[in-house]
Amino acid sequence: MKIPPFLLVIVVAIAVAVAFFKIYGRVTRPDVPLQVSATVENFAPGVAIGSSVKASKAKLGDVRWIQHLGFVGVLDRHDFALIRLAPAAAARHKVYGDDRALVESVELVSLSGDAISTTMVDLGIVFRGSPKDGCIIPGTDDMPYRRVQYWTTPSDRGGVAMVTDWTFTPSTSTAGVNVWSMIAWAGPFKGSETLLAKFDARSCLQIVGA
Known about the structure:
alpha+beta, 9 strands
């Protein structure tokens, strides 16, 4: 059956429009997903993933370089006391820090266990769902297992994780936990590489039980 010319024109026009908007979306969308950038801005105003370390650390106090870790500074806002600005691995392993390096991930350290539940609720709203559950394996016997609850965007373009010490009990309660951290990053979640620690996709309960 022969397709009428006007119908063929409509089909072609629709195909062109769909292709255009797909390409336009890829070109114009930000490198850092809004869920991630908004979370960092909320808890650490002036700090941004993808910006230079120099631009972000201008808003912080007493910033120091720690090889293999990144720039660590003081942050006295929203129950977070410390902040780490981590550049890419090539810059992170240098003896001296480079202010021109771009921030690849941000870690906020809290000394207030009371803030865990409210932060969990906030992140659940931002990412519209429950987190995945994983575990950081301790490097030595005197270090604890650390629970990782993390969210990623639907297309895995970035995410945020909450890291707390594991209590070695079946309970998922965070009672008694005082020091915990929140890590935000752009790009696909790569486990150990993203968290800068030995990560296992199983829950700590599964690992300890095993």
